Please model this.
Amino acid sequence: MENFRALRVHQDKSGNFYRRVEERSVDELPPGELLVQVQYSSLNFKDVLSATGAKGVTRHYPHTPGIDIVGTVIESTGKRIRCGEQVIATGFNIGMDTDGGFGQLARIPENWALLKPTKLDTLDSMVLGTAGLTAALSISKLEQFGMKPDLGPILVTGATGGVGCIATALLSQIGYTVHVVTGKQHQHDFLRSLGANDMLSREDALERIDRPLQKEQWGGVVDTVGGDTLMNAIKGLRRECSATTCGLVSSPFFRGSVLPFILRHVNLLGIDTAELALAQRANLWGRLANEWKVQHLARIHTETFTLQNLEAGIAKILCGEMVGRGVVDLQNS
Model:
C-alpha cells in the first residue's frame, strides 16, 4: 500500500483548526522500525483535544490524531517484532506529535508496540484501548495498596466514560461492590448492566463539600474526572484505603485538606499509562486477555466510526454525550 487515507488536522494562517480526510503517501510518515496496517483505533478524550488544536497535547500541525493502534506489521527493521505479527500500541507520543491511529498506516518505533495477546481479538483490544489499560492499572495499583472486596464498596466517578464503564464492569466481575457517579440519569440501566450496584448523581458526589472529612464508606475510589468530586471521595475513604486519579474533565484543581491523609492514613495514587514501561503494559494486557477479560465489552462498545463520520464522534465527546467506547474502523474507511 503506497498511499493511504488519514484524518489530518490543519491550522490556518488565522490560527483556526480544521480537519479533513486526505490521501497520503507512506513516505510522509515519521521514522520508526515498524510500519503497521491499522485495523482499528479508538476515540479518546485526548484524541479530541488533539483534533481541536489543544497545544498541551499536540504542538505541531498538520497532524493525525489517534493514541491507540491495533494492526498488522507490514514492514519491520526491528529485532523483536516481525512482519505479519499483530501489535497493540497505545500512549507514548502516538497521536500526539507522532502521526497516530486515525490513518490506515502508521509508522512507530518498535519499543512503543506489544504483540497482541492471542486470546484478545483486534476489535476488543480497541474497545479497551487506553481506557481499558488505564482502568486495569487503576485496579491493579489499588490492589497493590491493599484494596479487597470485603473493605467496602468501590466508588467509580465518570462512570459512563471509557475508563469509568470498563472499571465498573471489571470491578464487579472480580467480586467488588461498585457504586458509581454519573450525571446521566438515563444511563442508569446501562451502568446496572455492567454491574453497578448503586448510583450517585454529581450533586450527591459533592454533598457537604465544605466538610474536612466525610463518613467513612469507600474501600477504594477510581476517579476519572478530578476536581472537587475527587477530593470529596477522598474524604469518604475508609481508613488506610486509596483513591486513584487519571482524568481532569471536571477540573485539574481541587480544594483539598490534609486531614484525610493524616487522620485516616489514606492514599491518592496517580495513574498514567502513556509512559508506562513495556513490561507493565504486557502484564496488564495479559490479564485483560485472561483472568481480567471483560465480559461486557459488547455493551461497552457503543459506537463504530470510520474516517468519513469521525466528526460525529468528536462532536459527541465535545458535547459530553459519548457513552461507553467508540471504535474507529480503518479497514472500511
User: Anything to note?
Assistant: The mean pLDDT is 96. The chain has two domains: 3-116+297-329, 131-270.
